[in-house]
Amino acid sequence: MTSDLHPADPPTSVCSISRVEHALGVLRGRWKLLIIHHLLVRRPRRFSDLERVIPEVTQKMLVQQLRALKRDGVVRRIVYDEVPPHVEYELTQAGAELATALYALHDWAERSCSAASPAREAG
User: Fold this and answer.
1) Which residues share a beta bridge with 105?
2) Which residues in the chain show pLDDT less than 50?
3) Whole-angstrom distance, CA of residue 58 vs CA of residue 83
4) Count of CB atoms situated within 10 Å of the CB of 65
5) Model pTM score
6) How far apart are CA 92 and CA 104, in angstroms?
7) E strands within the chain?
8) pLDDT tens across 79-101, in order?
9) What gap in Å lies between CA 60 and CA 83, rounded to an integer?
10) Angle between helices 99-122 and 32-41 (to 10 degrees)
């Protein structure tokens, strides 16, 4: 008997396409995955740290992306009652759970880039 399941299909549960679309919507944005990556590498981080490690992002865009990630429950904004003001960002539990997906994406990119390199050089 042959199985109609794709190797990437979950073995026991069915994930509706609307849930996948929601997850992709949370991550949609040019800088969100990089922000999450840098918050996984070291947390918490100050806004200026994020600016430094992602130099291509503008202040305005970084603020927008952090606000969206906060709204979606991926990032927590910590405000310390100090002068001058001290604000840090860290991943929530839900945000930290994205690590598995990001590591899988990293591994896939590494494999696909290695496989694509000879074809690019020949073309």
Assistant:
1) none
2) 1-3
3) 25
4) 22
5) 0.74
6) 20
7) 45-46, 75-80, 86-91
8) 999 888 899 999 999 999 999 98
9) 23
10) 120
C-alpha angle with apex 9: 104 to 103, nearest 5 degrees? 5
Distances (CA, A) of 56 to 28, 45, 50, 67, 92: 17, 18, 11, 18, 25
Provide the token pair at 96: 């930290």
Distance CA 21, CA 27 (A): 10
Tell me the three state secondary structure of residue 36.
helix
Eight-class DSSP state of 46: E
Token pair of 122 as six digits: 């020949």
Closest CA to 89 of 122, 65, 115, 114: 65
Q: What is the CA radius of gyration of the chain?
A: 18
